[in-house]
Amino acid sequence: MLIAGSYQYPTMESVIYGKPAAEALREEAERLGAKRVYLIVSRTMNSKTDEIEKIRKGLGERHAETFDGVPQHTTREAVVLIAKRAKEAKADLVVAIGGGSVVDAAKIVLMCMEHEIFEQNGLDGFETTPERRFGQFRTPKVRMIAIPSTLSGGEYNSGALVTDTRRKLKQIFNHPMMMPRSIILDPAMTKNTPEKLWLGSGTRAMDHGIEAICSSRPNVLVDAVCQQGLRYLHDGLRRTRSNPDDEAARLNCQLGSWLSAFGLQARVPMGASHAIGHVLGGTCDVPHYFCTAVMMPSVLRYNRPATEAAQTAVAAALGAPGRDAGEAFAEFVAELGLPRTLAEVGVAEDRFELIGKNAMLSIFARANPQPIREPGDIVKILRFAA
């Protein structure tokens, strides 16, 4: 039987590595002719390191304004406020410097600016649903650049996760041109990232690779690249835990995050780990970077009947050829000192029914390789992780 598939190249122009972020951003701003560069940055980086100031100095007169108040899980309240300020500052380029919440904020800010959405309710109707892959956004006139300080890898796709705090519901918003034009990788930007966030976001990056390899619609290029990404991350995370000052290992982790995200770039469908992880964050306030550590072994267990061959490849990439992929991943999580059960992150069984209902709203639950037909299927996976 012949294999069949397709690969869709993303709307990203470049990934830049090997030079300081301030230098690389200045060159990109000059290349793009940007005159009003709006920075959305991590508050910790802005207040406790000199990295953001180096970037402002590098931009010089091109720097328009800096915002450093993005909350965890990227709330609607925050993004409409940032959009209003960026619009008032006449921003012609947005730059996200920080973790996944900052990157997601920058993506949706582009759309809020384009549509002049400065109130929370203005985002209603644009969210992605199982019936609607892309909201009816116009192509934004202003684009963005990402300089990540963690490994979660959201900068490599065109979607943004935004939490409606009134309903405690995390929603996906998507448009191909929400993807950054450029991504700048600089290990120096990660040196002050807290260890648990660094290691946990690394497992989140591995989530992208594992779910792509095990996808219901796999891709030969994606499989090969994601397997190498998992190897980079497996090696790099262990090395940086042993020696946080190992810049080469940090860059390996960044490269691993990039390669593991090839499925996101090609729009290979993700599965239950993504669907459940988004709900654990938006509904149960679990830090996003702990969700994969807790859930992936259980998702692999549930999916094993449909993904046995793919899981063999995953186990090999995790340095455990011939082993059960879920068990190999659980052992790796334990080695990193991350939480391994829902109880450890404060999620009791009385929340499982609500998590199941909310996860069924996700496009990823419907795309899981082992069919998920009802909330009870989600609850079954959650019980594996209890």
TrEMBL record:
Coiled coil: none annotated. Transmembrane segments: none annotated. SUPFAM superfamilies: Dehydroquinate synthase-like. The keyword Oxidoreductase applies. One of its GO terms (molecular function) is metal ion binding. Residues 201-383 form the Fe-containing alcohol dehydrogenase-like C-terminal domain. It comes from the Bacteria. InterPro entries: ADH_Fe/GldA, ADH_Fe_C, Alcohol_dehydrogenase_Fe. The keyword Cell membrane does not apply. Residues 14-187 form the Alcohol dehydrogenase iron-type/glycerol dehydrogenase GldA domain. Keywords: Oxidoreductase. Belongs to the iron-containing alcohol dehydrogenase family. This is Alcohol dehydrogenase. It comes from Bradyrhizobium centrolobii.
